[in-house]
Amino acid sequence: MAMPTDTTSACQTNSILKEFKEFDDTKAGVKGLVDSGIEKIPEFFIQPQELLPKSSEVAPPSLQVPIIDLEAIHKDADSYKQIVQELKQASESWGFFQLVNHNVPKALLDEVIKGIKEFNEGNKDVKEKLYSRDIKKKVSFASNLNLYQMSAANWRDTLNCLFDDSLDPTDIPLVCRDAFMKYREDLLPVAETLYELLSVALGLPSDHIRSMNCAKTQIFVAHYYPPCPEPQLTMGTSTHTDPSFVTFLLQDSLGGLQILHDDHWVDVTPIPGALVVNIGDLLQLASNDKFKSTKHRVLASTRGPRISLATFLVPAFDKKKPFGPIKELLSDKNPPLYKEVLATDYLKSYVSKGLNSSALSYFKL
């Protein structure tokens, strides 16, 4: 068989872009496709074979993501040290853990999931008005934010909310507004506690990471994964790392999240009331590779909808203050592995590259 010519490749690219544009213009997302009654997924959702899950790569059920229990954090010094040690090990070897007894009420977590579901299954006009790929918008709805940078689309729709000092809460859809605002209010103290523990785990003063304003901005990414008629051909979310400092993930009971650990894909089994936490690219950069930002993905499924809310904690978007490896961690034996970068530049680089590769490699020294 003859190798494809550049012209053939260009025609294929133009064809995919045309399909992306036609899908995008509906402003109905993946749910719109499902509501139309399709029995086969559109071709532009079909992932390359090499990127699809393989049964040989799946870890045995006995391999489980670490659980960090905060219940005894104020009990005594020994309990505190034990939690720090468990967190240190999880951050170094897994990059993921499930946080329990974090003081965010389960009833509120359930309300957040309910609000996301009602938004996606509610008034279509509300979704259409919010539909946008403009990353400067504080609140937007889209299917596959980086759609035009992808070789194949993921089977999900997403509501994005950028919480900073200029967000007008009334821009958030009414059905999930109160739950989002209350969840953010309750989550920020948990983030402060986590940053304290991470600082101590790195051998730094307990307030070091908090003083870096690494939770100054919070990006809510609320995913809705409709049931898929051909889940073996696509992905809910392709393999990626997060562009955050730390990510808190609230997931429903359906599962589907997997992380790559020791060359095996490990299921992150849902625990009622737990928050999944993972180290983001910016913390791997700041810790000079001491803590790891781990690849993860979400499987497509005939079951659904699956609903989750990822909260990306990122440094303040200060154009004058670059972000790099923490100087107190560096030495002749541990030189910096990354150059300094503005948080905004890192996020732009991440969005422009698409999934399936890490933006960290762009900033290696």
TrEMBL record:
One of its GO terms (molecular function) is dioxygenase activity. InterPro entries: DIOX_N (IPR026992), IPNS-like_FE2OG_OXY (IPR044861), IPNS-like_sf (IPR027443), Oxoglu/Fe-dep_dioxygenase_dom (IPR005123). Signal peptide: none annotated. Keywords: Iron, Metal-binding, Oxidoreductase. The keyword Oxidoreductase applies. Residues 215-315 form the Fe2OG dioxygenase domain. Gene3D superfamilies: B-lactam Antibiotic, Isopenicillin N Synthase, Chain (2.60.120.330). Belongs to the iron/ascorbate-dependent oxidoreductase family. This is Fe2OG dioxygenase domain-containing protein. It comes from Rhynchospora pubera.
